[in-house]
Design brief:
There is one protein chain. This protein has a 3-stranded antiparallel sheet. The chain is built from 5 helices and 3 strands; from the N terminus they run H-H-E-H-H-E-E-H. Strand 2 and strand 3 form a beta hairpin. It is mainly α.
Length: 178
Amino acid sequence: MPSVVGLLEQHELAARRRVNGLREAADRIQAELAAAEQEWQEWAIARRRVDTVLAPDDGNTAGTEVTEDPRDADASPEPRDAAKPKSQVPMWREGLAWAVLSVDYQRILTMAADRQRLRQGALTCQELAVMFGLDAVPAKVEALRSKAKRLVARGWPAEQQPGRFTLAPGPAGHDGVS
């Protein structure tokens, strides 16, 4: 007759293997999503550039600007305030606007700010998933948890209890504007 401890160890091992398999699948899906988002952004930029080139000339020579150095022709413009998808999250500092974050990070902060303003308490990752219009399945919840944790590590929201997010005191006082 097998021992109780041995049976528990077998069940624990099976559960750990399942978790590891699901994590690997989630990582693969996250990588595919990142590549798809990047491709989508590139197509959107291409469309905007074509729209700019094909826009009727209003007497302004901005659309007919000639690049003097051919090496500059392929150079991409430097981003101003908005972050690119999969960009680094900057450390929060006084005067830094939410606009430096990608759209998903801004949405997380906005949802946390709304909850705080309505005095509804901290925001969970399951609630985030629902507010993002996603199914609250583990892979999607974990992807949002990863984003929220990245924000916490950089000082934007706070995590006073594990998995429960509120705005940190600094960003809370700024409501997303510099």
